[in-house]
From TrEMBL:
The chain crosses the membrane at residues 51-72, 84-102, 145-167, 174-195, 201-230, 242-263, 275-295, 307-326, 332-350, 362-388, 400-422. It comes from Sinorhizobium sojae CCBAU 05684. GO terms for cellular component: plasma membrane. It is found in: Cell membrane. Residues 52-452 form the Ammonium transporter AmtB-like domain. Its main location: membrane. Belongs to the ammonia transporter channel (TC 1.A.11.2) family. Keywords: Ammonia transport, Cell membrane, Membrane, Signal, Transmembrane, Transmembrane helix, Transport. It comes from the Bacteria. Residues 1-28 form the signal peptide. One of its GO terms (molecular function) is ammonium channel activity. It is a multi-pass membrane protein. This is Ammonium transporter.
Amino acid sequence: MSSFNLSTSLRRVGAIAAALLAPVVAFAQEAAPAAAEAAAAAPVPDKADTTFMFVSTLLVLFMLIPGLALFYGGLVRAKNMLSVLMQCTVVGATMMIVWVIYGYSFAFGGSESAYFGGFAKLFLAGVTVDSTAATFSDGVVIPEYIFMLFQMTFAALTPALIVGAFAERIKFSAAVLFSVLWATFVYFPIAHMVWDANGLLFGMGALDFAGGTVVHINAGVAGLVGAIMVGKRTGYGRDMMAPHSMTLTLVGAAMLWFGWFGFNAGSNLEASGGAVLATVNTFLATAAAVLSWCVVETLTRGKASMLGAASGMIAGLVAVTPAAGIAGPMGAIIMGLAVSPLCYFFVSVIKNKFGYDDTADVFGVHGVGGFFGALATGIFASSALGGIGYADGVSMGGQFMTQLTAVVITIVWCGIVSAILYKVVDAIVGLRVTVEAEREGLDLSSHGEAAYHTS
């Protein structure tokens, strides 16, 4: 009897449970196809695009170390060689840490502000192996980690570019501290304004494919302000201050050209035709600028120099950067031919006229080349000139004015904030070394070692 009652009770419990679970089961059966459909609709990173971005990221690192370090190192006197290598290396390493702590969030944190990315991605919060970043094509994404790293190399390289303007007299601690402050209050906001979908200049329709405003105008203006505020090298205009190794300068310049393919083509974010166009333009504009600088020197000085060829190489790379995936190949050649005479004029005439000591011509090449490239992008984007064309309803004149507005905003923001930050750094640690340390050379006085030893 008890056995019969237990069976009956169990059957009743089972019936009740089935009745209670029936809506849950029905909901799950209805939700499963929807979930599967949503999962299928979510874009998945393509392995080819991901690999392409890996390679591009490493190429940009190669631009900084050893490329930029050797380029600048060859341009200074032998007693300051290691100081420049150290500044480029440590500034770059410092910026990598700053970038993952708060720089990525300040630039691309998802804020709707036109000037600031926000705090949502501090310490890379929410960035995982499964999170993705959008590209320029609908439905195409790449892993967010590789996007973060690619942008990190830009953030590491740009402050290091400034170092060349006040090389041979800046305190090591001042160079590093200024780089952190400058990136925080200049680079990250400008990067957000130009490259984030909510950014001020992005919303205006300003074109900057790979960093004409964000990297080169920014670094050039900050370098000019720094060269003036740090002051001239002791003995400038009297002592011989020729580059100690044009061999290393050319090696560094060649490494920069090589790495620049990652810089420009990688900014396409996909292994597609846009990346190939950026590669073509990076070849052609640079080659044209090398030849153009040699011609200008031959006409003005009677001889073409290796320093001129290397300078033309960098000028061409700078000029084509904002237009790399936008202009056509013939437009890139014209940009390369035109930028060298302009930069040469600033390096050989304007600098001497105003008397500022820009050691590695950061303003004359990166700043002026960046101005020219950003404005020329507005012209050579025209489909009539072989470019990819303007947005609907935008004319060449309209685009040019947008580019000019972006350039002016970048110059004003960078110039004013940089001047303030140099003052802050000077108050905290002091900007330049003593005259005695400068005469001895920063290699020994700041780092206790020498680049070269004679037996």
